[in-house]
Design goal:
Elements: E1 8-19, E2 22-33, E3 37-41, H1 48-56, E4 63-68, H2 78-81, E5 84-87, H3 99-108, H4 124-130, H5 146-158, E6 164-168, H6 176-191, E7 195-199, H7 203-209, E8 212-217, E9 220-225, H8 227-234, E10 238-244, E11 247-253, H9 256-266, E12 271-277, H10 281-293, H11 298-315
Parallel strand pairs: 3-7, 3-8, 5-6, 6-7
Antiparallel strand pairs: 1-2, 1-4, 8-9, 10-11, 10-12
Helix pairs in contact: 8-10, 10-11
């Protein structure tokens, strides 16, 4: 078992998974600190779900070392599982239960695992308010809208005050207001030292929530860093925009700092609305994935990416 420090909630070393001759995961290595929000991105079939299910203890692995809260998930007991939270893509059972009743019932299973550091379960009324279901606390689940049911899914996942929370497409079906409230909840949980591993296809959401983004493709990690770090690595040009004497200008440059400095020297007045725009997360993500899906093949694509990022680190 890989050694883990007290600050490390998830530790994965050389994780491999095969189904017959098909290798779904090939040497995946990463870690997550307590209170860190890590977003796992990748195209369908990249190995995201398999990785998360191994961490949750729902699936075995072919090789490698995995530790979640200091425990190998394949040997996790009920006390260990009580420290985890899981929000699946859908959870539609028990339609005749009322929201408050179901959460109180499920929360009771966590009570024996309460500690001085972590009181379990979450107070039902506080939890209902946290996910925006106070007005529907006494409604039967079958009467909830799709978005309200999704809020309930989140409540079920965090009712035990988890130390590590796994979220699979958590805001699918949320309207913009509900999505913003959920983002606030994620930040609140992270501030309380909950480690969050989230999968999503919403790149805007990933950029807003993630402390770190891990991109999986072809069963390998092809990028690991903050949204800003990834965009800096992949973007050869930055776009500088400014207004002078009422006219709008745009210029692409590899060295935005030097260009802006020279611009301000040449035009010491009259410059306004100055901004530097680097590649968005979506542009960065698409470029990364296209490398792997290109005719190069997975290994050559990953090596090409690593060469490019190494060169940019040297010249920066």
């Amino acid at each position: 078992m890989a050694a883990t420090s007290e600050d490390t909630a998830i530790d994965v070393r050389d994780l491999r998974m095969r189904y017959g001759t098909n290798e779904v995961l090939s040497g995946v290595t990463f870690s997550a600190r307590r209170g860190e929000v890590v977003v796992l991105l990748g195209p369908n079939g990249a190995g995201k779900t398999t990785t998360v299910e191994i961490l949750e203890g729902f699936r075995g692995r072919s090789a490698g070392e995995v530790s979640v809260l200091g425990v190998d998930p394949t040997h996790g007991d009920e006390a260990w599982r009580a420290r985890l939270g899981v929000v699946l893509q859908s959870w539609r059972d028990h339609g005749k239960w009322r929201v408050r009743e179901l959460l109180r019932h499920l929360g009771a299973y966590y009570a024996p695992y309460s500690t001085e550091r972590t009181r379990r379960p979450w107070d039902v009324d506080e939890l209902v308010a946290a996910v925006g279901l106070s007005e529907h606390a006494d409604a039967k689940i079958m009467r909830l809208s799709g978005g309200q049911r999704r809020r309930l899914d989140v409540a079920i996942g965090i009712v035990g005050c988890p130390e590590v929370l796994f979220l699979d497409e958590p805001t699918a079906g949320f309207d913009p207001h509900a999505r913003r409230e959920f983002h606030d909840l994620v930040h609140r949980l992270a501030d309380e030292d909950t480690t969050i591993l989230l999968t999503t296809h919403d790149l805007d959401e990933a950029e807003k929530l993630a402390d770190r983004i891990i991109v999986l493709a072809g069963g390998r990690i092809i990028a690991d860093g903050s949204a800003d770090e990834l965009s800096r690595r992949m973007s050869t040009d930055a776009e500088v925009r400014w207004t002078r004497d009422g006219e709008r200008f745009v210029h692409a440059t590899q060295d935005a700092t030097a260009f802006v400095r020279d611009l301000l020297v040449r035009h010491d007045s009259g410059i306004s609305d100055l901004e530097v725009r680097r590649a968005s997360l979506e542009e960065t993500y698409m470029k990364l994935v296209q490398r792997v899906e290109s005719g190069l093949g997975d290994e050559e694509a990953v090596r090409a990416f690593l060469r490019e990022t190494a060169n940019q680190e040297v010249t920066r």
